[in-house]
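thought: fold this chain, then report.
action: predict
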Amino acid sequence: MRLGVIADTHGLLRPEVFEVFAEVDHILHAGDLGPLDLLTELEALAPVTAVFGNTDGMDVRARLPRVAEVRLDGFDIVVTHGDQFGRGVPNEEFQAAYPRADILIHGHTHLPKLELVDVVVTVMNPGGAGARRFDIPASVGILELEAGIPPRGRLVPLTGADED
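observation:
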């Protein structure tokens, strides 16, 4: 199973996302979505599990949870924006809050991250996919799931270091 992982779109769904997510089986959106129309566009590609972020309005919060727990291809996955953990979203605190998860997905910091924690838990922040902030290139993530082996992941830049 191939997952597209995205966060911090803030209402901007770049055309590159459609290319990168063309063959995904499921999409995980880790909050700061923007208007709900964006969710509809993503759902045209694949089923979406999404959460609200700290900048999302009441309409988004009424439709999406703060934390989503989903089991896909034998993996327990937790998706949250991450603002409840503070500015840096420390892996240890995130894992302690969801000790049964195999994969932890968050956004909020706009800093792409793909790390193995405690030998078996994968933590991913796909980075910010919307308008660039903090001089960080826009990016998304891809996770490949196959029962019996650890998830394989990669971060995919959507813009160059000096592009908006």
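thought: worth noting. The chain has a mean pLDDT of 91.
final: tokens above.
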